[in-house]
Amino acid sequence: MAPKKKFTKDQIIDAAFEIARIEGVDAITIRRVAEKLGSSIAPIYVNFKEVGELLEGVYQKTFEVSRQILLEQNSGHPFQDIGAASIRFARAYPVLFRDIVMQKNDQAKHSEEETGNLIHMMRMDPDLNGLSDDELKTILLKMKTFQVGISVMAANVLLPEDYTEEQMIQLMNSAAQDVISTARGRIEQS
Q1: Which of 78, 129, 148, 181 lies in the 20 to 30 Å Cα band around 28?
Q2: In terms of domains, do 78 and 64 share one?
Q3: Is the same domain home to 83 and 177?
Q4: One domain, residues 80 and 133
Q5: Which of 49, 68, 87 is the last residue of a domain?
Q6: Model-level pTM?
């Protein structure tokens, strides 16, 4: 009898992630992942008690990929980088983006810690200098609304065919400047 193949949790999650990237999260089953690995289901169950546990690993990997895209932006304007990373993720992983953003999904909700991390990044942006945390949270929510909208359009190829990623980012930056200017105007009027 041939020895059973052994796989690490990361190898199993990578196989499941690849299925989700192409076909969506709902396509992930223990059997499908085993087939992808050229294995029986036994090694999957050695590492994961049930498919929900594996899905949690896939969501964590998805967020790691998203964070890595954000870290690669590094334009000197962290607030701009947040939006650019969303557009880039939506274009590179449209099926996963739709699964996470366009379906009811508790995984996609930002925790207080994640929101705090984004606010911390925003505080480092020279364009947002001097704004309070409450003002930054409001700006973040307004821009997240715009960012998700343009990212959905990018993931679903709803923008004109010749519309480049750079043009999407410029449009988002223009909207951000409008939101920031309005916030600063409100402060000056107070």
Answers
A1: 148
A2: no
A3: yes
A4: yes
A5: 68
A6: 0.85
Do 108 and 153 share a structural domain? Answer: yes
pLDDT per residue of the chain (190 residues) written in tens, 0 to 9: 444 568 999 999 999 999 999 999 999 999 999 999 999 999 999 999 999 999 999 999 999 999 999 999 988 888 889 899 999 999 999 999 999 888 877 766 667 888 888 899 899 988 898 899 999 999 999 998 999 999 999 999 999 989 999 999 999 999 999 999 999 888 888 7
| CA–CA dist 148, 182 (Å, integer) | 20
Contact 81, 40 (CB under 8 A): no
Work out how many domains the chain is built from and give that number: 2
Q: Same domain for 102 and 124?
A: yes
Q: What residue numbers bound the domain in which 31 lies?
A: 1-68
Start-to-end CA distance of the chain, whole Å, equals: 79
